[in-house]
Amino acid sequence: MSIDLNKYKNIHMVGIGGISMSGLAEILFKEGFNVSGCDIKSSNITEKLKRDGIIVYLGHDPSHVTGADLIVHTAAVKNDNPEILKAKELGIPIIDRAELLGSLMKNYNYGIAVAGCHGKTTTTSMLAITMQQAELDPTILLGGEIDDIGGNVRIGNSPYFLTEACEYYDSFLKFYPYIAIVLNIDSDHLDYFKDINQIKESFLKFISLVPDSGYIIACNDNEHVRDILKRVKDRNIITYGINWPSHYTAQNITFNSNGYPEFDVFYNGQNLGKFKLSVPGQHNVYNALATIAASITIGINMDIVKKAIKDFRGTHRRFEYKGNINGISVIDDYAHHPTEIKATLKAALNYPHKRIVCVFQPHTFSRTKALLNEFSQAFDCADHVIITDIYAAREKDNGIVNSKMLVDLLRQRGIDAEYVKTFDEVVNSLRQKATKGDIIMTMGAGDIYKVGEMYLDSYKTKNIEQKIS
Questions:
Q1: Known active-site residue 120
Q2: Known catalytic residue: 106?
Q3: Is residue 93 part of a domain?
Q4: Whole-model pTM?
Q5: 120 is known to lie in a ligand binding site
Q6: What is the rounded distance in angstroms from the CA atom of residue 194 to the CA atom of residue 208?
Q7: Which residues in the chain come in under a pLDDT of 50?
Q8: Of these four, 163, 170, 381, 432, which has the most CB atoms within 10 Å of its CB?
Q9: How many folded domains does the chain comprise?
């Protein structure tokens, strides 16, 4: 179901500070809508929206919806939100973020939706840069930020709309993809999905949204993806992989001194040449294959694809280099699922280092509880692991699971692990234990990135104090 946005002029967005909501707000604003919004706290995102001319309120108050003729909210906003209650009282239509995104996508001939439990932001960003360099002038909406487009949104003037497609709350079932890319299927968001079978059914419904003339591009190396592809009829299916026979395959994979992959790409047995990446890890070879398959499908020249993929330097919070102090490198990554943690730490093995010191902040109690055993097996590539308190996000602590339980399981497996409660204490521990040649890697979808910044700043502050004294 989609709505006719032409019927509305004044749109109020509850939870406008979210990465996707803020991007949608910018698109609406530049298309001539009067946009306002609110969030619980100020951030770089809300400040940018204000500078752009969008009205942003802090906190939630019924008066904020006055004058609005359409309300958009995030999945995190509950029915008892005072602005939602007021909108219902006034009879103002209410939709969620996914329905708005789907309605916008419907206005474009070629909606490209990148789905998967891991790698969405990186793959969408890589494809965004490729489409830009091919001068396709796409409209782009990311779940992260890249310097190439100056943030997470780009307003284009063409039939192409590129976006991430999140499975949480079945959001992507409200989209209208001409090309659906499925990177992988894994157990996650088990506070919403019952099990992996329900997740697979959701992805099957998603790719079934593709019209007969459209394309499904999917990773054949993922068993759950292969399972759902068997059930798809009368669609153009393009597969890619490394280990499983596919239309596009990567072979002869090597890593340079920075851990960046180089590999040959074959299409139906024909060698398309050597591709080089400027981001580390085999998981990014998969992301590149998805990008290559999509780019060629929409007719982008091979030389442009090769150059764009090599030019891609990653998104913020994806293996993001934060700095080096005393020969110790600080890297931050958004990894918050066991599969992502394994892939990121494996990538770090190819990065110059003496030891890997990983600081992990679990994200949500439900995920930590459901995947506790998997988390305990995800840190084998790290030399020392520090676990902080669980980042609650949208949840409340019910006391069933905590970070110390994960530390205990790690220690049982022989992993050098410790629980450290506060960020200040983590920084102190790092200052005592990290030595020249180490990598400090902060991981998680919460605010753990602050630890790396605090660690680097602690030395800058000390140096300033020494100079003053």
A1: yes
A2: no
A3: yes
A4: 0.84
A5: yes
A6: 21
A7: 464-469
A8: 163
A9: 3
